[in-house]
Amino acid sequence: MRQSQLFIPTLREAPAEAEARSHQILLRSGMIRQTASGIYSLLPLGRRVLHKIEQIVREEMDAIMAQETLLPSLQPIELWEESGRNRDYGPELMRLSDRHDRSFALGPTHEEVITALIRDEVHSYRQLPLTLYQISTKYRDERRPRFGLLRGREFLMKDAYSFSANWEELDRVYEDMVQAYTRIFTRVGLHFTKVEADAGTIGGSGETHEFMALADIGEDTIVTCTACDYAANLEKAIYKTGTDAEVTKPFTQGTESQKVKVHTPDTKTIQQVASYLNLEPQNVIKTLLYEADGVPIAVLIRGDHEVNEIKLQHALKVEQLEMLDQEKYKDDLQLPVGYLGPYDLSMKIIADYAVISMDRAVTGANEVDHHYIQVQPGQDFTWDAAADIRNAVEGDLCSSCGSALTFDRGIEVGHVFKLGTKYSDAMGATFLNQTGTPQKPIMGCYGIGISRLLGTIAEQYAADLKMSWPVAVAPYHVHLIPISVKDEVQMELVHELESSLTALGVEVLVDDRNERPGVKFKDADLIGLPMRVIVGKNAADRQVECSWPANSQDTENTEPSSSERMSVEEVLEIAKMHIFPKVD
């Protein structure tokens, strides 16, 4: 391909709103352009990378007998009402009406559509197991689109759905899918890990795992054990909660209280209270108010901990959970913002296990500018339920082996679920088993963010505003750069190299622009092809400058080697060694 004919609108500077390095490099290298917040156009170079990712995904899906389909993005809202997710999905579900006032949704996912299809078309156990997948555009009205392709409102996704006659069959399909995902993310060059996860709005009754690409910009926290193979998303992470005696500490209310009310002016935050009383945040109990399925509840958690709303929602067994608006409990409940305590509240109280084991704690006094000190949980206040409802923190102990847990940041690039009969129950999908008895198919679903994967690879492989694409997904393999396109000797050698490399199956981009070398090199740094060949003043001697990945088998090393002078024949050998085997 001739660079003079290729649409690559590179930028010298990234827009100010581009915070993530992946966002910056994709914009500057002319791979994407923003159309609206969270909505991007993929330009030719970016589309080539995306196509290669898609091809790897298709190869691995086909290898486990998954069959490709294409399902409609425009989905009748009645399907979402059947599943019960029309309300649960909330404002992220993009809803619209046609000219006949019939309601539709722009699909963020396709559980409802695929279940309706199978309900109508699959009637016998002989048709199972069945796994269908697609690569299509999805829509989610994200509250805060950010980081370019990493969190958008329109994006490309691979979603697969399996239907099995029993749980054992689903287990086999699930494991096949996990192995396929492992191969996909390895082939595209990601540094990733598999972690336990929460099912979220997708739901389901079985296990679920996320595949996390390690990245500082990641919005997810990955919790791993320093000794064993335990790994989980922060929202799912479990840890040793203490001794049984601490967890089941009995109420002792009725004995004489030792708590003392103290004046704490202008101390609404935990840090302010701790500083004013000259103690640590872990000695303070936070009282937070939530609304669970429309009913106010109080949540007690240690001052240095954060509520894990996923755990809290599961502990309460509710569908909807959100923090109660401060103005609402200030005006409607007549409670003081910043000075709440677990006393005389006309609502259910749930306490985290760590609160139960506290001694001589500090709480709000339900009075402006006042707190209680020397508070004894179980003596000075009680609770209706206790549970593990906090996020893990570094230093917590692994529930499996007792070693310390450690934290990393990650980007979710894949998610696999065992759905069970959540959707087949709700939507009345059945098949006849071997005895002729109607039975609900056991479902699984499996997603990969294809366009997010492009952004994630860029996040891991960009450094100092230079890119170095892994060979498997690079838009082209070799960047041929003549110093002067007006030099006939240089151009003859360029054409010879291009022809020989192309004959090997290597994809070549020739920078045939009449530009200064510095301009060409800067653009080459942004485009980031795996191998760069510079044809200059030594062309008459059939000598060129060549650089390539320092170790193409080591995905942790993304830096190219220093440029070396070599012959045309040596360049072809290097291409065979570092590129051609990966193109096969």
UniProtKB/TrEMBL annotation:
Its main location: cytoplasm. The keyword Protein biosynthesis applies. Residues 548-567 are annotated as: Disordered. Residues 33-470 form the Aminoacyl-transfer RNA synthetases class-II family profile domain. Keywords: Aminoacyl-tRNA synthetase, ATP-binding, Cytoplasm, Ligase, Nucleotide-binding, Protein biosynthesis. GO terms for molecular function: proline-tRNA ligase activity. Gene3D superfamilies: Anticodon-binding domain, Bira Bifunctional Protein, Domain 2. Pfam families: HGTP_anticodon (PF03129), tRNA-synt_2b (PF00587), tRNA_edit (PF04073). It is found in: Cytoplasm. It catalyses: tRNA(Pro) + L-proline + ATP = L-prolyl-tRNA(Pro) + AMP + diphosphate. Residues 549-565 have a biased composition (Polar residues). SUPFAM superfamilies: Class II aaRS ABD-related, Class II aaRS and biotin synthetases, YbaK/ProRS associated domain. Consists of three domains: the N-terminal catalytic domain, the editing domain and the C-terminal anticodon-binding domain. PANTHER family: MITOCHONDRIAL RIBOSOME PROTEIN L39/PROLYL-TRNA LIGASE FAMILY MEMBER (PTHR42753), PROLINE--TRNA LIGASE (PTHR42753:SF2). Homodimer. Catalyzes the attachment of proline to tRNA(Pro) in a two-step reaction: proline is first activated by ATP to form Pro-AMP and then transferred to the acceptor end of tRNA(Pro). As ProRS can inadvertently accommodate and process non-cognate amino acids such as alanine and cysteine, to avoid such errors it has two additional distinct editing activities against alanine. One activity is designated as 'pretransfer' editing and involves the tRNA(Pro)-independent hydrolysis of activated Ala-AMP. This is Proline--tRNA ligase. It comes from Paenibacillus gallinarum. The lineage of its organism: Bacteria, Bacillati, Bacillota, Bacilli, Bacillales. The gene is proS.
